[in-house]
Design a protein that fits this description.
This protein has helices at about 25-40, 45-60, 65-70, 75-90, and strands at about 5-10, 15-20. Helices cover about 50% and strands about 10% of the residues. The chain is globular. With about 100 residues, it is mainly α. It has a two-stranded antiparallel ribbon with strand order 1-2. The relative contact order is 0.18. The two termini are about 15 Å apart. It is built from four helices and two strands.
Length: about 100
């Protein structure tokens, strides 16, 4: 699995990149459980919080919290960043830093 990257804007305006080099298969199982919980609710905020909580846990870094993700991503990049990470966890091929699925 490719490295997972998340670039978050810091309070001082600078950007910091976080990387996960290895994603254990257990995280795939947890992603499937999270998806099941998302499908059980119609509350969009709860669905989003479940995904952000999962991604914060995935990065296993005290600096990558749900608040850091919400505050560190711009709204127009937010969905693409999260979907790119989730696609990679689920085993889909994603072109590096593009947020787009690789058709090859």
């Amino acid at each position: 699995m490719a490295n997972l990257k998340l670039e978050l804007q810091q309070a001082d305006g600078s950007f910091k990149r976080y990387v996960v080099d290895r994603v254990p298969a257990r995280k795939l199982r947890e992603a499937l459980e999270m998806t099941k919980k998302q499908n059980e609710t119609s509350d969009e905020v709860e669905r989003l919080d479940l995904m952000v909580d999962f991604i914060a846990d995935l990065f296993n870094n005290p600096e990558v919290t749900p608040d850091a993700i919400y505050d560190g991503l711009q709204s127009d990049d937010f969905t693409t960043a999260l979907e790119t990470i989730m696609s990679a966890v689920m085993g889909e091929k994603v072109k590096p830093d593009s947020g787009k699925k690789d058709d090859n």
